[in-house]
Amino acid sequence: MAAIGAVFTIRYVANLLGEDENWLSDLSVDLFPEDGCLWVYGVGQHGVPAFTDDGIGSLRQLIADERAAGHAPPSVKQK
């Protein structure tokens, strides 16, 4: 198994995928480290979810599942 070389914050991933950051945060609650979702802590008390490449793939699958079920908000235009 290859070591993790980089993680991407939820804000970065939301922008990359053109999705709402809060919605992705809600979806990521069901993801675990083995799914590629990690928590990153910095200054202050709150951490932020961050994703490996596999984690981004996991989120893409969750997004597709939610869209297929008709439970997804409209995509956000990328900046």
Question: How would you characterize the overall build of this protein?
Answer:
- With 79 residues, this protein is α+β, with helices and mostly antiparallel strands.
- It has a domain at 8-43 and 52-68.
- The protein is 41% helix and 15% strand.
- The protein contains three helices and three strands, in the order βααββα.
- It has helices spanning 10-17, 21-28, 53-68, and strands at 8-9, 37-41, 47-51.
- A three-stranded antiparallel sheet has the order 1-3-2.
- The radius of gyration is 13 Å and the shape is globular.
- The mean pLDDT is 91.
Residue ranges: pLDDT <50 for 5 or more in a row? none
Major sheet: arrangement of strands: 1-3-2
Q: Roughly what percent helix? A: 40-55%
Largest sheet: 3 strands, antiparallel
Shape: globular
Provide the β-strand percentage band.
15-25%
Number of strands: 3
Radius of gyration: 13 Å
Count up the helices.
3
**Helix/strand/pairing class, anyone?**
alpha+beta
